[in-house]
Design a protein that fits this description.
The chain folds into two domains: about 250 residues, Neuraminidase, CATH 2.120.10; about 120 residues, 6 Propeller (Neuraminidase), CATH 2.120.10. It is built from no helices and 36 strands. The strands form ten sheets. Strands 5-6-7-8 form a four-stranded antiparallel β-sheet, with no helix packed on it. Strands 9-10-11-12 form a four-stranded antiparallel β-sheet, with no helix packed on it. Strands 13-14-15-16 form a four-stranded antiparallel β-sheet, with no helix packed on it.
């Protein structure tokens, strides 16, 4: 099983265990796909400063670049004969190109566009006759239970006649179709959570495969008799022959320099700016810390010094003496209120119904703080 973790490509046994890292660049590698003969891995790499198509042998080695367009080329799979890599690109069209599927030879050469007007994801059937694809590129991918124009059914095109039909669908978000034999597996939220579904193109039978209720299925792939999918940061293998679903116990160990304590330049990471009531200092959030800086004379102050904690959305009190912000230092968000000079520890206020909170605002008299939450409730802290 190949997967992406910590910006690199890894391989692990179907049984799980210790994973072997295939790439180790400071850039991001993603979207790994085995060739049909199992000898190559195609993936999206940024070695040249731009997402392009690369291949590397399953035993490791130097990756070989296949595309060179300045736009993003994202790997989607292989042609059934293993001679070409399938990728998605928005390289044509102005000013904003539509996603389209292309192929590029493993041996190198110019890309060729597949005969479908637009598609974000797609996979060619094992016999090479049909293309199952996701038509549109949604601009809001994280909205749960969305029902609207961004949602489209999975489509299947005959690559010889160009005849097309749609999988059974009402209004759900269906995405990332893959083939295993004559069956199409895809992600759908038709049960109000993104789960794995299947459609048998011979019997026309639609079936729900997984029933996750906590975290959604994020990606899916298929090959060699199994369906692999990602859910809650774990890799699962589903065996259609037995109906068994297994979560793999994977150990990925490495140096991970990005996880080591290090100094970082926050000058380009300052958000949520706010001027103090006196105009003497400015308040910012940066990389999970709350920071104030002088508008003229003085020095900067880090009020939180909380590596590994998200301190966010700070606001000045009306008199400029205190600052309030949200912090998840305990594992759940609390509202913190501290002196603006940072000389004494802030006071933490535990919030009911732990969730994600937004938009804190002080009352004009400084005695209450108003804020909202992810469920669109309005709260007041006295």
């Amino acid at each position: 099983v190949a997967f992406a973790y910590a910006g690199d490509i890894w391989i692990v046994s179907r049984d799980g265990g210790d994973a072997r890292r295939l790439t180790s660049s400071p850039t991001v590698e993603s979207d790994p796909h085995f060739s049909p003969d199992g000898k190559w891995l195609a993936f999206t790499g940024e070695y040249g400063g731009n997402p392009d198509v690369y291949v590397v042998g399953v035993n490791g080695g130097t990756p070989r670049r296949l595309t060179y367009h300045p736009g993003a080329d994202l790997v989607r799979g292989w042609t059934p004969d293993g001679q070409d890599v399938v990728f998605e690109s928005q390289r044509t069209g102005m000013p904003d190109g539509e996603p389209q599927l292309w192929t590029v030879p493993l041996a190198g050469g110019l890309p060729t566009r597949l005969p479908v007007p637009r598609a974000l994801y797609g996979a060619i059937s094992p016999d090479g006759s049909d293309l199952a694809y996701q038509l549109d590129r949604p601009w809001e991918v994280e909205m749960q239970r969305y029902r609207g124009g961004q949602n489209q059914p999975i489509r299947v095109m005959d690559l010889k006649t160009y005849a097309m039909y749609k999988l059974p669908w009402t209004d759900s978000r269906d995405q990332q179709p893959v083939w295993l034999g004559s069956t199409i597996y895809f992600i759908s939220d038709r049960d109000w959570m993104a789960n794995l579904w299947s459609y048998d193109t011979k019997t026309k039978a639609l079936k729900q495969i997984t029933h996750h209720r906590n975290y959604e299925v994020e990606s899916v792939s298929a090959g060699a008799g199994l369906v692999a999918y990602e859910q809650a940061g774990d890799v699962h293998l589903y065996d259609p022959a037995t109906g068994q679903d297994r979560k793999l116990d994977i150990r990925a160990t490495g140096d991970f320099p990005w996880a080591m304590p290090h100094a970082a330049d926050i000058s380009k990471a300052l958000v949520a700016p706010q001027l103090s009531p006196t105009g003497v200092r400015a308040l910012f959030e940066a990389r999970g810390d709350v920071i104030t800086v002088p508008t003229d004379k003085g020095t900067w102050r880090n009020l939180t010094h909380s590596s590994g904690v998200a301190d966010r959305t700070p606001i000045w009190s009306p008199d400029g003496k205190q600052i309030a912000w949200f912090s998840d230092g305990t594992g759940e968000y609390e509202l913190m209120v501290g002196d603006q000079d940072g000389l004494t520890p802030p006071k933490a206020y535990k919030l009911e119904h732990p969730t994600y909170f937004y938009s804190p605002q002080w009352a004009p008299d400084g005695k209450k703080i108003l804020f909202t939450d992810a469920e669109t409730n309005l709260w007041v802290l006295d």
